[in-house]
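step 4 of 6: structure.
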Amino acid sequence: MPLAKRIIPCLDVTAGRVVKGVNFLELRDAGDPVEIARRYNEQGADELTFLDITASSDDRDLILHVIEAVASQVFIPLTVGGGVRKADDVRRLLNAGADKVSINTTAVSNPEVVEQAASRFGSQAIVVAIDAKATDATNSRWEVFTHGGRRPTGLDAVEWALKMQQLGAGEILLTSMDRDGTKIGFNLPLTQAVSDAVDIPVIASGGVGNLQHLVDGVKIGHADAVLAASIFHFGEYTVRQAKEAMQAAGIEMRL
Amino acid sequence: MMSASKPLIAIVDYGMGNLHSVTKAFELVAEQQAHIVLTADPAVVASADKVVFPGQGAMPDCLRELNASGLKQAVLDAAASRPFLGICVGAQLLFEHSEEGDMDCLGLFKGRVVKFKPENMHDAQGQKLKVPHMGWNEMFIRREHPLWHGINDGERFYFVHSYHFAPTTDAETVIESAYPDRFAVCVARDNIFAIQCHPEKSHSAGLQLLKNFVNWKLSF
Protein backbone atom coordinates (compact mmCIF):
# COMPACT_ATOMS: atom_id res chain seq x y z
CA MET A 1 0.00 0.00 0.00
CA PRO A 2 1.28 3.44 -0.85
CA LEU A 3 0.11 5.13 2.38
CA ALA A 4 3.23 5.23 4.54
CA LYS A 5 3.36 4.17 8.17
CA ARG A 6 4.35 7.07 10.37
CA ILE A 7 7.13 7.67 12.91
CA ILE A 8 6.23 10.27 15.51
CA PRO A 9 8.83 11.58 17.97
CA CYS A 10 7.20 12.69 21.23
CA LEU A 11 8.43 15.73 23.17
CA ASP A 12 7.53 16.27 26.81
CA VAL A 13 7.22 19.97 27.48
CA THR A 14 7.06 21.72 30.82
CA ALA A 15 7.12 25.48 31.36
CA GLY A 16 8.08 26.02 27.74
CA ARG A 17 11.10 23.65 27.70
CA VAL A 18 11.55 20.08 26.51
CA VAL A 19 12.50 17.70 29.28
CA LYS A 20 13.79 14.14 29.30
CA GLY A 21 12.72 11.79 32.02
CA VAL A 22 15.07 9.16 33.34
CA ASN A 23 13.02 6.33 34.82
CA PHE A 24 10.42 8.86 35.94
CA LEU A 25 12.79 9.99 38.67
CA GLU A 26 14.53 13.00 37.32
CA LEU A 27 13.57 15.43 34.61
CA ARG A 28 16.47 16.96 32.75
CA ASP A 29 16.24 20.02 30.57
CA ALA A 30 16.68 18.83 26.99
CA GLY A 31 16.46 22.15 25.25
CA ASP A 32 14.39 24.49 23.20
CA PRO A 33 11.24 22.93 21.69
CA VAL A 34 11.59 24.80 18.40
CA GLU A 35 15.19 23.69 17.95
CA ILE A 36 14.38 20.06 18.75
CA ALA A 37 11.30 20.09 16.52
CA ARG A 38 13.40 21.43 13.65
CA ARG A 39 16.00 18.71 14.15
CA TYR A 40 13.39 15.92 14.01
CA ASN A 41 11.76 17.60 11.03
CA GLU A 42 15.08 17.62 9.19
CA GLN A 43 15.55 13.94 10.03
CA GLY A 44 12.25 13.15 8.32
CA ALA A 45 9.77 12.85 11.21
CA ASP A 46 6.27 12.31 9.82
CA GLU A 47 4.57 14.22 12.63
CA LEU A 48 5.48 15.57 16.04
CA THR A 49 3.63 15.10 19.31
CA PHE A 50 4.00 17.52 22.21
CA LEU A 51 2.90 16.39 25.62
CA ASP A 52 2.38 19.27 28.02
CA ILE A 53 3.38 17.95 31.44
CA THR A 54 3.32 21.37 33.10
CA ALA A 55 2.15 20.87 36.66
CA SER A 56 1.20 24.43 37.50
CA SER A 57 -1.85 25.89 35.81
CA ASP A 58 -0.08 29.28 35.83
CA ASP A 59 2.31 28.02 33.19
CA ARG A 60 -0.33 26.34 31.01
CA ASP A 61 -0.39 29.07 28.37
CA LEU A 62 3.31 28.61 27.68
CA ILE A 63 2.50 25.59 25.52
CA LEU A 64 0.49 27.88 23.23
CA HIS A 65 3.60 29.97 22.60
CA VAL A 66 5.65 26.84 22.00
CA ILE A 67 3.14 25.55 19.43
CA GLU A 68 2.92 28.93 17.71
CA ALA A 69 6.69 29.11 17.40
CA VAL A 70 7.05 25.53 16.13
CA ALA A 71 4.12 25.85 13.69
CA SER A 72 5.73 28.95 12.17
CA GLN A 73 8.87 27.03 11.22
CA VAL A 74 8.06 23.34 10.95
CA PHE A 75 5.58 22.38 8.24
CA ILE A 76 4.54 18.88 9.25
CA PRO A 77 1.53 17.86 11.39
CA LEU A 78 1.67 18.70 15.10
CA THR A 79 -0.31 17.00 17.86
CA VAL A 80 -0.58 18.45 21.34
CA GLY A 81 -1.83 16.71 24.46
CA GLY A 82 -1.91 17.21 28.20
CA GLY A 83 -4.33 19.16 30.35
CA VAL A 84 -7.16 19.39 27.81
CA ARG A 85 -10.36 19.71 29.84
CA LYS A 86 -12.93 21.32 27.57
CA ALA A 87 -13.67 21.96 23.91
CA ASP A 88 -12.41 25.51 24.31
CA ASP A 89 -8.95 24.20 25.28
CA VAL A 90 -8.97 22.31 21.97
CA ARG A 91 -9.86 25.48 20.08
CA ARG A 92 -7.00 27.46 21.67
CA LEU A 93 -4.44 24.79 20.79
CA LEU A 94 -5.72 24.51 17.20
CA ASN A 95 -5.62 28.28 16.79
CA ALA A 96 -2.04 28.29 18.03
CA GLY A 97 -1.10 25.96 15.18
CA ALA A 98 -1.76 22.42 16.41
CA ASP A 99 -3.32 20.13 13.81
CA LYS A 100 -4.57 17.57 16.30
CA VAL A 101 -5.29 17.68 20.00
CA SER A 102 -5.01 14.64 22.20
CA ILE A 103 -7.52 14.08 25.02
CA ASN A 104 -6.86 11.55 27.78
CA THR A 105 -8.25 11.92 31.32
CA THR A 106 -11.08 14.21 30.25
CA ALA A 107 -12.26 11.63 27.69
CA VAL A 108 -13.04 9.34 30.64
CA SER A 109 -14.37 11.90 33.12
CA ASN A 110 -16.30 13.84 30.50
CA PRO A 111 -16.75 11.86 27.24
CA GLU A 112 -19.03 14.53 25.76
CA VAL A 113 -15.98 16.76 25.42
CA VAL A 114 -14.70 14.32 22.76
CA GLU A 115 -18.05 14.43 21.00
CA GLN A 116 -18.30 18.23 21.14
CA ALA A 117 -14.73 18.75 20.00
CA ALA A 118 -15.10 16.28 17.12
CA SER A 119 -18.27 17.91 15.89
CA ARG A 120 -16.86 21.45 16.23
CA PHE A 121 -13.40 20.87 14.83
CA GLY A 122 -13.75 17.64 12.87
CA SER A 123 -12.71 14.10 13.79
CA GLN A 124 -9.39 14.62 12.01
CA ALA A 125 -8.37 17.03 14.79
CA ILE A 126 -9.25 14.81 17.75
CA VAL A 127 -6.94 12.12 19.11
CA VAL A 128 -7.97 10.11 22.17
CA ALA A 129 -5.02 8.95 24.23
CA ILE A 130 -5.56 5.66 26.06
CA ASP A 131 -3.20 4.49 28.81
CA ALA A 132 -3.81 0.77 29.29
CA LYS A 133 -2.50 -1.93 31.60
CA ALA A 134 -2.97 -5.71 31.47
CA THR A 135 -5.51 -6.96 34.00
CA ASP A 136 -3.51 -10.14 34.64
CA ALA A 137 -0.45 -12.11 33.57
CA THR A 138 -2.17 -13.57 30.47
CA ASN A 139 -1.95 -10.09 28.87
CA SER A 140 -5.27 -10.67 27.11
CA ARG A 141 -7.43 -7.96 28.67
CA TRP A 142 -6.40 -4.40 29.41
CA GLU A 143 -7.81 -1.72 31.70
CA VAL A 144 -7.84 2.02 30.98
CA PHE A 145 -6.04 4.26 33.49
CA THR A 146 -6.18 8.05 33.79
CA HIS A 147 -4.34 10.86 35.60
CA GLY A 148 -1.00 9.95 34.08
CA GLY A 149 -1.56 6.27 34.77
CA ARG A 150 -2.33 6.63 38.47
CA ARG A 151 -6.07 6.03 38.51
CA PRO A 152 -7.83 2.82 37.38
CA THR A 153 -11.18 3.26 35.63
CA GLY A 154 -12.57 -0.27 35.28
CA LEU A 155 -12.94 0.33 31.54
CA ASP A 156 -11.83 -2.28 29.00
CA ALA A 157 -9.30 -0.71 26.61
CA VAL A 158 -10.67 -2.30 23.42
CA GLU A 159 -14.27 -1.39 24.24
CA TRP A 160 -13.17 2.10 25.24
CA ALA A 161 -11.36 2.62 21.93
CA LEU A 162 -14.53 1.60 20.05
CA LYS A 163 -16.59 3.98 22.16
CA MET A 164 -14.21 6.85 21.42
CA GLN A 165 -14.38 6.09 17.69
CA GLN A 166 -18.16 6.21 17.95
CA LEU A 167 -18.02 9.62 19.69
CA GLY A 168 -15.93 11.01 16.86
CA ALA A 169 -12.25 10.47 17.72
CA GLY A 170 -10.18 10.43 14.53
CA GLU A 171 -7.23 8.52 15.95
CA ILE A 172 -6.17 6.55 19.04
CA LEU A 173 -2.82 7.09 20.79
CA LEU A 174 -2.40 3.83 22.67
CA THR A 175 0.19 3.62 25.46
CA SER A 176 0.99 0.40 27.26
CA MET A 177 1.68 1.27 30.88
CA ASP A 178 3.21 -2.18 31.42
CA ARG A 179 5.83 -1.36 28.82
CA ASP A 180 6.29 2.40 29.14
CA GLY A 181 9.92 3.10 30.05
CA THR A 182 10.96 -0.58 29.90
CA LYS A 183 12.63 -0.51 26.47
CA ILE A 184 11.53 -4.12 25.84
CA GLY A 185 9.10 -3.28 23.03
CA PHE A 186 5.43 -2.44 22.54
CA ASN A 187 2.73 -4.54 24.16
CA LEU A 188 1.92 -6.23 20.84
CA PRO A 189 -1.23 -8.17 21.83
CA LEU A 190 -2.75 -4.95 23.19
CA THR A 191 -1.77 -2.97 20.10
CA GLN A 192 -3.14 -5.61 17.75
CA ALA A 193 -6.38 -6.03 19.69
CA VAL A 194 -7.16 -2.31 19.60
CA SER A 195 -5.95 -1.71 16.05
CA ASP A 196 -7.96 -4.63 14.64
CA ALA A 197 -11.09 -3.58 16.53
CA VAL A 198 -11.33 0.03 15.35
CA ASP A 199 -11.59 1.61 11.88
CA ILE A 200 -9.56 4.70 12.84
CA PRO A 201 -5.74 4.84 12.88
CA VAL A 202 -3.87 3.66 15.98
CA ILE A 203 -0.52 5.02 17.18
CA ALA A 204 1.46 2.53 19.27
CA SER A 205 3.37 3.93 22.24
CA GLY A 206 5.31 2.70 25.25
CA GLY A 207 8.32 0.44 25.46
CA VAL A 208 10.43 1.16 22.39
CA GLY A 209 14.07 0.28 22.98
CA ASN A 210 15.34 -0.52 19.50
CA LEU A 211 14.36 -0.31 15.86
CA GLN A 212 13.03 -3.86 15.62
CA HIS A 213 10.41 -2.84 18.18
CA LEU A 214 9.11 -0.22 15.75
CA VAL A 215 8.93 -2.83 12.98
CA ASP A 216 7.06 -5.24 15.27
CA GLY A 217 4.57 -2.53 16.26
CA VAL A 218 3.48 -2.21 12.64
CA LYS A 219 3.91 -5.79 11.41
CA ILE A 220 2.63 -7.68 14.47
CA GLY A 221 0.74 -4.96 16.34
CA HIS A 222 -0.92 -3.63 13.14
CA ALA A 223 -0.25 -0.06 14.26
CA ASP A 224 -0.66 2.72 11.69
CA ALA A 225 2.00 4.84 13.37
CA VAL A 226 4.64 4.41 16.06
CA LEU A 227 5.57 6.95 18.71
CA ALA A 228 8.88 7.03 20.53
CA ALA A 229 10.72 9.43 22.76
CA SER A 230 13.84 8.20 24.46
CA ILE A 231 15.47 6.36 21.54
CA PHE A 232 15.49 9.66 19.67
CA HIS A 233 16.10 12.09 22.54
CA PHE A 234 19.15 10.31 23.81
CA GLY A 235 20.62 10.16 20.34
CA GLU A 236 20.67 6.36 20.08
CA TYR A 237 19.00 6.55 16.67
CA THR A 238 17.98 9.28 14.29
CA VAL A 239 14.46 9.31 12.90
CA ARG A 240 15.96 8.62 9.50
CA GLN A 241 17.73 5.48 10.72
CA ALA A 242 14.45 4.28 12.17
CA LYS A 243 12.66 4.88 8.88
CA GLU A 244 15.36 3.09 6.91
CA ALA A 245 15.15 0.09 9.22
CA MET A 246 11.38 -0.07 8.81
CA GLN A 247 11.62 0.23 5.05
CA ALA A 248 14.25 -2.52 4.97
CA ALA A 249 11.74 -4.70 6.83
CA GLY A 250 9.26 -4.19 3.99
CA ILE A 251 7.15 -1.42 5.56
CA GLU A 252 5.97 1.44 3.34
CA MET A 253 7.74 4.59 4.57
CA ARG A 254 8.22 8.20 3.48
CA LEU A 255 11.94 8.57 2.89
CA MET B 1 2.30 49.87 4.42
CA MET B 2 1.51 48.02 1.23
CA SER B 3 3.50 48.94 -1.85
CA ALA B 4 1.51 48.95 -5.05
CA SER B 5 3.97 46.70 -6.81
CA LYS B 6 3.54 43.65 -4.61
CA PRO B 7 0.63 41.34 -5.36
CA LEU B 8 -1.84 40.68 -2.57
CA ILE B 9 -2.67 37.08 -1.70
CA ALA B 10 -5.74 36.77 0.51
CA ILE B 11 -6.30 33.70 2.67
CA VAL B 12 -10.03 33.54 3.30
CA ASP B 13 -10.91 33.23 7.00
CA TYR B 14 -14.55 32.25 7.35
CA GLY B 15 -14.04 30.79 10.82
CA MET B 16 -13.23 27.19 9.96
CA GLY B 17 -10.03 25.64 11.15
CA ASN B 18 -6.45 26.38 11.91
CA LEU B 19 -5.20 28.97 9.44
CA HIS B 20 -2.01 29.69 11.35
CA SER B 21 0.04 27.12 9.46
CA VAL B 22 -1.21 27.99 6.00
CA THR B 23 -0.54 31.69 6.65
CA LYS B 24 2.96 31.05 8.03
CA ALA B 25 3.78 28.71 5.15
CA PHE B 26 2.75 31.31 2.58
CA GLU B 27 4.71 34.04 4.40
CA LEU B 28 7.79 31.82 4.28
CA VAL B 29 7.59 30.97 0.57
CA ALA B 30 6.48 34.44 -0.58
CA GLU B 31 9.88 35.86 0.53
CA GLN B 32 8.63 39.45 0.50
CA GLN B 33 7.45 39.10 -3.12
CA ALA B 34 3.79 39.17 -2.13
CA HIS B 35 1.64 40.44 0.71
CA ILE B 36 -0.01 37.57 2.52
CA VAL B 37 -3.19 38.60 4.32
CA LEU B 38 -5.45 36.40 6.41
CA THR B 39 -8.81 38.09 6.14
CA ALA B 40 -12.50 37.79 6.89
CA ASP B 41 -13.27 40.99 4.99
CA PRO B 42 -15.07 40.52 1.62
CA ALA B 43 -13.60 43.81 0.37
CA VAL B 44 -10.05 42.55 0.93
CA VAL B 45 -10.85 39.28 -0.86
CA ALA B 46 -12.36 41.33 -3.70
CA SER B 47 -9.21 43.43 -4.01
CA ALA B 48 -6.75 40.49 -3.78
CA ASP B 49 -4.70 39.41 -6.78
CA LYS B 50 -4.85 35.76 -5.70
CA VAL B 51 -7.11 33.94 -3.28
CA VAL B 52 -6.53 30.92 -1.05
CA PHE B 53 -9.67 29.15 0.14
CA PRO B 54 -8.88 26.70 2.98
CA GLY B 55 -11.26 24.79 5.25
CA GLN B 56 -11.21 22.19 7.99
CA GLY B 57 -13.76 20.29 9.99
CA ALA B 58 -17.25 19.24 9.06
CA MET B 59 -18.34 20.37 5.60
CA PRO B 60 -21.90 21.46 6.52
CA ASP B 61 -20.41 23.76 9.17
CA CYS B 62 -17.95 25.15 6.61
CA LEU B 63 -20.74 25.92 4.12
CA ARG B 64 -22.92 27.47 6.83
CA GLU B 65 -20.06 29.66 8.08
CA LEU B 66 -19.19 30.67 4.52
CA ASN B 67 -22.77 31.79 3.94
CA ALA B 68 -23.00 33.54 7.32
CA SER B 69 -19.66 35.31 6.87
CA GLY B 70 -20.79 37.28 3.81
CA LEU B 71 -17.66 36.03 2.00
CA LYS B 72 -19.34 33.64 -0.42
CA GLN B 73 -19.83 36.12 -3.28
CA ALA B 74 -16.28 37.45 -2.96
CA VAL B 75 -14.99 33.86 -3.10
CA LEU B 76 -17.10 33.06 -6.18
CA ASP B 77 -15.95 36.24 -7.90
CA ALA B 78 -12.31 35.38 -7.22
CA ALA B 79 -12.81 31.83 -8.49
CA ALA B 80 -14.29 33.24 -11.70
CA SER B 81 -11.16 35.13 -12.73
CA ARG B 82 -8.12 35.24 -10.44
CA PRO B 83 -5.61 32.55 -9.39
CA PHE B 84 -7.53 30.55 -6.82
CA LEU B 85 -6.33 27.72 -4.56
CA GLY B 86 -8.83 25.53 -2.67
CA ILE B 87 -7.37 23.38 0.11
CA CYS B 88 -9.01 20.37 1.83
CA VAL B 89 -12.65 21.24 2.65
CA GLY B 90 -12.12 24.45 0.70
CA ALA B 91 -11.44 22.22 -2.32
CA GLN B 92 -14.38 19.92 -1.60
CA LEU B 93 -16.75 22.89 -1.43
CA LEU B 94 -16.00 23.65 -5.10
CA PHE B 95 -17.85 20.50 -6.22
CA GLU B 96 -21.57 20.07 -6.86
CA HIS B 97 -22.73 17.96 -3.97
CA SER B 98 -21.45 16.33 -0.76
CA GLU B 99 -22.45 13.10 0.95
CA GLU B 100 -21.41 14.74 4.22
CA GLY B 101 -24.64 16.37 5.31
CA ASP B 102 -26.19 15.52 1.90
CA MET B 103 -25.87 19.06 0.67
CA ASP B 104 -25.28 21.08 -2.46
CA CYS B 105 -21.99 22.95 -2.68
CA LEU B 106 -20.63 25.71 -4.95
CA GLY B 107 -20.69 23.65 -8.15
CA LEU B 108 -17.56 24.98 -9.86
CA PHE B 109 -16.40 21.43 -10.63
CA LYS B 110 -18.68 18.61 -11.74
CA GLY B 111 -18.77 15.74 -9.28
CA ARG B 112 -19.57 14.70 -5.74
CA VAL B 113 -17.78 14.50 -2.41
CA VAL B 114 -18.00 10.91 -1.12
CA LYS B 115 -16.86 9.01 1.98
CA PHE B 116 -14.18 6.34 2.15
CA LYS B 117 -15.91 3.10 3.17
CA PRO B 118 -13.55 1.27 5.57
CA GLU B 119 -15.57 -1.97 5.50
CA ASN B 120 -14.52 -2.50 1.87
CA MET B 121 -10.91 -1.37 2.13
CA HIS B 122 -7.88 -3.62 2.52
CA ASP B 123 -4.24 -3.41 1.53
CA ALA B 124 -2.27 -5.99 -0.48
CA GLN B 125 -1.61 -8.00 2.71
CA GLY B 126 -5.32 -8.10 3.60
CA GLN B 127 -4.84 -5.62 6.43
CA LYS B 128 -7.78 -3.28 6.83
CA LEU B 129 -7.28 0.33 5.82
CA LYS B 130 -8.26 2.96 8.36
CA VAL B 131 -10.50 5.99 7.94
CA PRO B 132 -9.67 8.89 8.24
CA HIS B 133 -7.09 8.39 5.50
CA MET B 134 -4.28 9.86 7.60
CA GLY B 135 -0.61 10.18 6.76
CA TRP B 136 1.77 10.58 3.83
CA ASN B 137 0.61 9.19 0.50
CA GLU B 138 1.97 9.28 -3.02
CA MET B 139 0.99 11.83 -5.64
CA PHE B 140 0.79 10.61 -9.24
CA ILE B 141 0.85 13.15 -12.05
CA ARG B 142 -1.99 12.77 -14.54
CA ARG B 143 -1.53 16.10 -16.30
CA GLU B 144 1.20 18.71 -16.27
CA HIS B 145 0.35 21.85 -14.32
CA PRO B 146 2.43 24.94 -13.40
CA LEU B 147 1.68 24.43 -9.69
CA TRP B 148 3.44 21.06 -9.85
CA HIS B 149 6.67 22.59 -11.19
CA GLY B 150 9.67 21.09 -9.38
CA ILE B 151 7.66 18.38 -7.60
CA ASN B 152 8.37 14.76 -8.49
CA ASP B 153 5.90 12.15 -9.65
CA GLY B 154 5.31 9.89 -6.63
CA GLU B 155 6.18 12.60 -4.07
CA ARG B 156 4.39 12.13 -0.73
CA PHE B 157 2.00 14.70 0.73
CA TYR B 158 0.16 14.70 4.06
CA PHE B 159 -3.50 13.68 4.02
CA VAL B 160 -6.12 13.70 6.74
CA HIS B 161 -9.69 13.25 5.53
CA SER B 162 -12.64 10.85 5.53
CA TYR B 163 -14.35 12.33 2.47
CA HIS B 164 -12.85 13.00 -0.95
CA PHE B 165 -14.05 14.58 -4.16
CA ALA B 166 -14.97 12.30 -7.07
CA PRO B 167 -15.04 14.35 -10.30
CA THR B 168 -17.61 13.29 -12.94
CA THR B 169 -14.92 13.42 -15.61
CA ASP B 170 -11.19 12.93 -15.20
CA ALA B 171 -10.44 15.61 -17.80
CA GLU B 172 -9.63 18.12 -15.04
CA THR B 173 -7.70 15.75 -12.77
CA VAL B 174 -4.07 16.80 -12.34
CA ILE B 175 -2.94 14.51 -9.50
CA GLU B 176 -4.19 11.16 -8.22
CA SER B 177 -3.38 9.08 -5.17
CA ALA B 178 -4.57 5.59 -4.15
CA TYR B 179 -6.34 4.31 -1.01
CA PRO B 180 -6.69 1.51 -2.07
CA ASP B 181 -8.38 2.63 -5.31
CA ARG B 182 -7.14 5.59 -7.29
CA PHE B 183 -8.83 8.88 -6.44
CA ALA B 184 -8.40 12.47 -7.60
CA VAL B 185 -6.33 14.64 -5.25
CA CYS B 186 -5.89 17.75 -7.39
CA VAL B 187 -8.21 19.14 -10.03
CA ALA B 188 -7.60 22.28 -12.04
CA ARG B 189 -9.31 24.42 -14.66
CA ASP B 190 -8.08 27.76 -15.97
CA ASN B 191 -7.39 29.89 -12.86
CA ILE B 192 -8.58 27.35 -10.25
CA PHE B 193 -6.51 24.68 -8.53
CA ALA B 194 -8.07 22.49 -5.82
CA ILE B 195 -6.13 20.08 -3.59
CA GLN B 196 -7.55 17.51 -1.17
CA CYS B 197 -4.50 17.14 1.07
CA HIS B 198 -2.44 19.67 3.02
CA PRO B 199 0.48 21.34 1.22
CA GLU B 200 1.06 23.52 4.30
CA LYS B 201 1.81 20.31 6.25
CA SER B 202 3.72 18.49 3.53
CA HIS B 203 7.28 19.59 4.23
CA SER B 204 9.39 20.87 1.31
CA ALA B 205 7.23 19.47 -1.51
CA GLY B 206 4.16 21.13 -0.07
CA LEU B 207 5.98 24.43 0.33
CA GLN B 208 7.11 24.15 -3.31
CA LEU B 209 3.45 23.92 -4.37
CA LEU B 210 2.60 27.06 -2.36
CA LYS B 211 5.61 28.85 -3.85
CA ASN B 212 4.41 27.87 -7.32
CA PHE B 213 1.03 29.40 -6.50
CA VAL B 214 2.73 32.65 -5.43
CA ASN B 215 4.60 32.68 -8.76
CA TRP B 216 1.67 31.48 -10.88
CA LYS B 217 0.98 33.65 -13.93
CA LEU B 218 -2.16 32.85 -15.85
CA SER B 219 -1.38 32.28 -19.50
CA PHE B 220 -4.76 32.86 -21.08
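step 5 of 6: annotate
 - Chain A has one domain: 6-248.
 - The two ends of chain A are 15 Å apart (CA to CA).
step 6 of 6: archive
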